[in-house]
């Protein structure tokens, strides 16, 4: 498969997408969206893939929409930002959220605008200490998109969301970890190794159990306790019928590491 704006590889159950327009801080172009669409097609079709890792090449993670390709970059007469969201960003966010495997985002540098919220789509976000998150939209008269108005208040509450969205200030990776915006901030020197270790670990876990974990946790914000308990019961029934559950219990009882197959 040929890609123009990303690198894509699959090895030992781990698919890795690297946004690859480093000179422009990996900002999104329509060609990059096409590449991401095709990479996600490949991930969805390949049953051997048990974890997806997303990161960026160079000093930035992703600076959001490439503003030289913005709907506003011409005369702006027919600007319809909603159409761009509908065609590219919204589809991508929903596909990533619904992937039945863990998605890890390794934020190597600045993540701004749609790039910041693209990172937050992931199930687990790890960031280099020098990385940062900027809700840059306010500086160009837009509101947070790419799921930002959904993810941010759920992750950090309304007060911090409003501050981040209205002021557009840089939020350091350390602060993002303190706020609970991301899972972990790690020293730059350890970042690549730790991100890969984390993703490889997940690629060897009980994949179906992890898919059901995602499903239950993401459903919880709109469920009552009673509905959520019912959902846990139903999903645990499914998990309880997997090979990996049998293997996990057997491994515990036999005092040996489990060898999960992902089903
Ligand atoms: O169609 C639509 O418009 C709707 C879609 C909206 C979704 C969105 O994502 S809106 C938000 C778009 N993003 C931004 O507003 C962020 C713009 N970038 C920045 O504010 C800064 O670049 C950063 C704070 C992220 C990083 O600053 P810094 O000083 O570390 O780097 P820099 O020098 O600004 O950028 C380096 C290069 O990347 C530079 O190119 P050059 O001059 O060396 O050739 C810069 O122009 C380019 N770059 C950075 N961000 C973008 C970009 N080029 C195009 N689009 C970008 N978003």
Considering the chains and any ligands shown, give keywords for the structure.
47% helix; 263 residues; 10 helices; single chain; alpha/beta; binds ligand T3D; Lyase 2-enoyl-coa Hydratase, Chain  A, domain 2; six-stranded mixed beta sheet; 2-enoyl-CoA Hydratase, Chain A, domain 1; 2 domains; four-stranded mixed beta sheet
Question: What secondary-structure arrangement, pairings included, does this model have?
Answer:
Layout: E1 6-11, E2 14-19, H1 30-45, E3 51-56, E4 60-62, H2 81-98, E5 103-107, E6 110-112, H3 114-120, E7 124-128, E8 132-134, H4 148-156, H5 158-167, E9 170-172, H6 173-179, E10 184-186, H7 188-203, H8 207-220, H9 225-240, H10 243-253
Helix pairs in contact: 1-2, 4-5, 8-9
Bound molecules: ligand T3D.
The site of ligand T3D has 24 residues, from helix 2 and strand 6.
Structural class: alpha/beta
* Biggest sheet details: 6 strands, mixed
| Strands side by side in the biggest sheet | 1-2-3-5-7-10
Helicity level, as a percent range? 40-55%
- State the domain count: 2
CATH superfamily label of the largest domain: 2-enoyl-CoA Hydratase, Chain A, domain 1
Ligands (ions, cofactors included):
ligand T3D
CATH hierarchy: architecture of the largest domain: Alpha-Beta Complex
Strand content: 15-25%
Low-confidence stretches: none
Distance linking N and C termini: 27 Å
User: What is the count of helical runs?
Assistant: 10
Query: Which series of helices and strands comes N to C?
Result: EEHEEHEEHEEHHEHEHHHH
- Silhouette: globular
